[in-house]
Amino acid sequence: MFLNYPMPIERKLAAIMFTDIAGYTALSSKDSTKVSELLKTQRDTLKPIVKKHGGSWMKEIGDALLLTFDSATSAVECSIAIQVATKDIDDLNLRIGIHEGEVIKQDDDVIGDDVNVASRIEPFSAVGGVAISQKIQQAISSNQEFETKYIGKPKLKGVAQEVKVYCITSHGLPETNISKVSAKLEEESKFNIFALTGGILTAIGVAFWIAVGVFDVSFGGKTEVPSIGILMMENLGSEDEEFWSSMTADLIIKVARAGLIRVAPLDDIFKLDKKLSVEDKAKKLRVQYILTNRFHRKEDSFDLWSQLINTDNGSILFANKISKPLDMTSQLVGMLANDIINSLDVKTIQNVMEAPTSNSEAYEYYLRGKNKFEQRKSEDDIEIVRGLIQKAIELDDNLIDAKNLLGYTYKKTNNNDKALEIYNQNLKQAEELGDKHGKRIALHNIGNIYYHKNEFYTALDYYKHLIDISEKIGDKWEMAHSVKMIGNIYMYTGDYNKALDYYIRSLDEFKSVGNKGGIGGSLLSVGKMHKNLGAYEKALDYSILSLDMFQTIDYQKGISWALDQIGDSYREIGDLDSALDYFTRSLEINKELDNKWEVAYSLLNIGYFHQFKGDYNKALDNLARSLKIFEELGDDGLIPILLYFIGTNNYHNADYEKAILFFEKVLSIADDNETNQGDNDDWYFRITTYLFLSYKHTDKTFDVKEIHKYYEKEKEFEEYDSIILPFALYQLLEDTSYLKTAYEQVQEKADNLEPDVAAKFLSYPIPKAIVEEWEKVK
Q: What's the rounded Cα separation, in Å, for the pair 574 and 3?
């Protein structure tokens, strides 16, 4: 909730080297342990070489490295030494790009147009080779030791300067295959940075280019995978045959998991207005193809009519009528999925024609149960569902889909123990039957249950198993989801570097299936990890990318998440005005969505910003509204924080009696709930300091030893308390050493800000009061 501030900006001319491991993504999807060892090998091998050649190890971004050198010759010599040293190391197949220009260094990060160029020309290198810009080529041209070959003049979108690229052909380095590189760049050059961001990210630094270049994040055009909306099956028969429409859900899942194809989720299909035209439905679902379905269940047969329409040009890829006897109904979904996949030319290693059961009666009971569950309104309905599922299982004990649905009914009613019992039995049976699809569903739900029970390491084992089986059956969607969940687990267990690695990998996986919602979520998570690791500028870059992605699919909840994270990043950077603007925008969206918790959270943050800026009445208004919502929701987690902030605002507003009431209430809550705050000396220290200050202003008695009891256990002030608490202690104890500490912290933070932001910071009431008080007593 408090501010950290960036280091001063440093600019210098340097040779910039960018390295990348070829084949890293494919390797990481197969063996995460091997990948971790490979990165350690890279680090151990390259660091001594870089040091020997006078290079600076600027940062690691996944498998990529960013290095700088004082001269072009040193950079080139180092690149050759690196390729020689790594030539015989398994899987450490490096591409290297080098450019010369201005490096802007801030917060242990490097940014700038020339950094972007280095990252963008690296793909021109052959595996084991080195690509260089014309600037580097000119700098080393007088040295006969080096031989180079001209590759071409690529179009590097988002790079203002003209760039020509060469490769080094001496020292046994492999030449670049120009035809292969040219084809690749022509495809990548379709990316339009201005269409992506409206022109606001023309030079946001290397983090952006990593997202676009290394992960090839595409937002439109020919490179996207096919996209389809599978509409609900329309019943042409009697009303009691409506349950057959539940085949739609199974069809969506089967097609979505077949390969590189993006399928609109079932929830979005449910929300569609049936009166819309096919073209408008496609626009609403953000897909190119629409599948329409109608069915008629006859006395002894089943008819299914389907049309696959390309809404870009109105053409019909196929118009089928499938007529089958009732004992073949369980095969219909597979047959239709196969038609879709073949028509869209999607490659798959899955047997989509495989039916869940050969028993048509069991399949019918399964669909009846599935449909009833989708339409459930009460506990009684769920019991009916379970009865229908049991009948299906009695007819075919190997119908794992039905058994997994049974487990899901318990999971959705929060009977996780029963759900786990069922899923574990299903997992064992699916393994015995060789039913990879049933095994995947069981693993997914078991992992999910343990994850939500906060048994993270148990969940981790299941998600790793899930990745293995997803790879075997070619289920890219499940792969992406599982990788993202592992990232979440490492985030919650505090291993932010591992979390970052998995989030970056999930970004690549979601990109491969064209899942824009997944891409947006992964970008947001990558940004969050950078924020947790203190790289606030990079956090801002990724968060803005996430916002743009969510905006392209009009996902309002995602937009609000991104706005909050952008606000957080600006807060950490020190730009409170921008932070306030983004949290206010998030608040408006959450009001429209009626997301009460998120509304309360936004109000809390907005209140904090107004407090720091000295507008205590606005702060109190927002904090009070936030408190009321959290109390209505029965969510006690943030209530003590809110009471504390309300107390401090009343204190700064000179309403000391009110402040005392709130501080004493917070201490009372802490005493009653030791598992929450009762044993936290930092917490008591902050509250007690302001409580005693309020006592002092109202001539109430207090024991100063209480302050020292808590403070003596602290070696130093926490970062976010480094200004506020020392000044409060000075006011309470009249000890100028605390004022000196506060003043020095103010000056240090101001020195680390851009001039305009520093001026704003120094104008805020607390920093301003500290500086003025120090001028009086120094």
A: 6
Q: Could you tell me how many helices (H) and strands (E) the chain has, helices first?
A: 34, 14
Contact indicator for 166, 137 with CB cutoff of 8 Å: yes
Residues 434 and 458 in one domain: no
150 inside domain: yes
* Helix axis angle, 496-512 to 516-532, nearest 10°: 160
Choice between 349 and 471, residue whose per-residue pLDDT is larger: 471
Q: Domain containing 101: what range?
A: 10-214
- Angle between the N-to-C axes of helices 724-733 and 681-697, in degrees from 0 to 180, rounded to the nearest 10: 40
Return the pLDDT at 160.
Answer: 56
What distance, in Å, lies between the first and last C-alpha atoms of the chain?
31
Which stretches within 87-205 are classed as H helix?
A: 113-121, 134-140, 178-188, 193-197
Q: How far apart are alpha carbons 102 and 624 in whole angstroms?
A: 49
Non-local (6+) Cβ contacts of 502 within 8 A are: 483, 484, 486, 487, 490
231 and 294 share one domain: yes
State whether 388 and 303 are in the same domain.
no
Q: What is the pLDDT of residues 710-759, one digit of tens each?
A: 665 444 565 556 788 889 889 988 889 889 988 988 888 787 677 777 88
Q: Which pair of tokens denotes residue 739? A: 């004022």
441: how many CB neighbours lie within 10 A of its CB? 25
Q: Is residue 3, in this structure, part of any structural domain at all? A: no
Q: CA 215 to CA 218: how far, in whole Å?
A: 9
Residue 640 pLDDT exceeds 70: yes
Q: Are strands 94-106 and 130-133 parallel, antiparallel or unpaired?
A: parallel
What total number of domains does the chain contain? Answer: 5
SS3 of residue 303 by DSSP? strand
Tell me, yes or no, whether 322 and 263 share the same domain: yes
